[in-house]
């Protein structure tokens, strides 16, 4: 890991249209990975549209990589079933945070950048990166790969070490 950049707060908001891996439903949870750091949400029982609203924290350093997530169905007597995976590049949010410093944006709400679905991400639709009261935030919907259906909503917040003048 290179130079520390700051903290990344990832809120796993919810899932939508997840696949059935048990008899009629699934017991989903999400594992989020950044480099060698891993965090996991709680299991939501018998739900294909779960709401987690769980914030997971990571240290972010250069080189900025991908945020990866995997969704699993919790099973008690055998290995947990895969329910898909997705990724999103963190470079756009870091670039937006640098732009925020240059523009000296610290209050109100300002859109800094839009990110379109492409090979660097599993975005379902365009995503905006905004500065909201001094914090750089991105709201994303990710389409799960290698599975019939499913989307996950994340709120990604980057707290920049070099700009600690605000919260």
From TrEMBL:
Q: What Pfam families has UniProt attached to this entry?
A: C2 (PF00168)
Identify the GO cellular component terms for this protein: nucleus; plasma membrane
Q: Which parts of the sequence belong to the C2 domain?
A: 1-103
Q: Which GO terms describe its molecular function?
A: GTPase activator activity; lipid binding; metal ion binding
Q: Which domain of life is it from?
A: Eukaryota
Q: Does the keyword Metal-binding apply?
A: yes
* Location within or outside the cell: Cell membrane; Nucleus
Q: What family is it from?
A: Belongs to the plant CAR protein family.
Q: Which organism encodes this protein?
A: Eucalyptus globulus
Keywords assigned: Abscisic acid signaling pathway, Calcium, Cell membrane, GTPase activation, Lipid-binding, Membrane, Metal-binding, Nucleus
Where does the UniProt entry say this protein principally localizes?
A: membrane
* Name of the protein in question: C2 domain-containing protein
Annotated GO biological processes are: abscisic acid-activated signaling pathway
